[in-house]
Design goal:
With about 170 residues, the chain is mostly helical. It contains seven helices and no strands. Helix 1 packs across helix 3, helix 5 packs across helix 6 and helix 6 crosses helix 7.
């Protein structure tokens, strides 16, 4: 399991950790090693869900913990290579986490039936009203409302099965 995780995820994890640590390769490699060690010690955390979002979250948390520990000892910043501070790196981490969440939701949308997926895409992603979505989809407004309701319920179940639901 550990070899497979390393082979599949170590490159992206290292790149992410390098950005968060301001280019400190030694620290980034340590963070990736600690992340994979946690995955090995807690395989239940990865059971039935995509590994990458969980691994990226662990990397971000380890870097944030290291930053807090340095701040508590009087060192204000992580090493800086390109002039950005640790807070900017952590803000970028939030952007990446949002991107990972979007990726997870997009994959889950693929598990919905085409009519349900269309209702969600039109109302939530395109921001159309029920009446506008009904025109685009060529169905009555009540049907759009019903499909969107049941699609959200189904999406929640799919995300819970993957361990990604709030």
């Amino acid at each position: 399991m550990l070899r497979a995780l390393y082979k599949e995820h170590s490159g992206p994890l290292l790149g992410y950790a390098l950005r968060l640590t301001g280019g400190d390769r030694r620290q980034a490699e340590d963070v990736v090693q600690q992340t994979l060690l946690r995955a090995w010690r807690h395989p239940e955390a990865l059971a039935g869900r995509p590994a990458r979002p969980w691994l990226f979250t662990v990397v971000r948390n380890l870097v944030a913990d290291a930053h807090r520990a340095r701040s508590a000892r009087g060192r204000d910043q992580l090493p800086i290579e390109d002039g950005t501070g640790a807070l900017a790196a952590l803000a970028a981490a939030d952007d990446i986490e949002r991107a990972l969440e979007c990726w997870t939701v997009a994959e889950a949308l693929g598990d919905l039936s085409p009519p349900h997926r269309a209702a969600i895409v039109e109302t939530y992603y395109h921001g159309r009203s029920v009446a506008e979505a009904a025109k685009v989809l060529g169905i009555p407004p009540g049907t759009v409302t019903s499909r969107a309701y049941y699609a959200l319920r189904a999406l929640k179940l799919v995300l819970e099965e993957r361990g990604s639901a709030p």
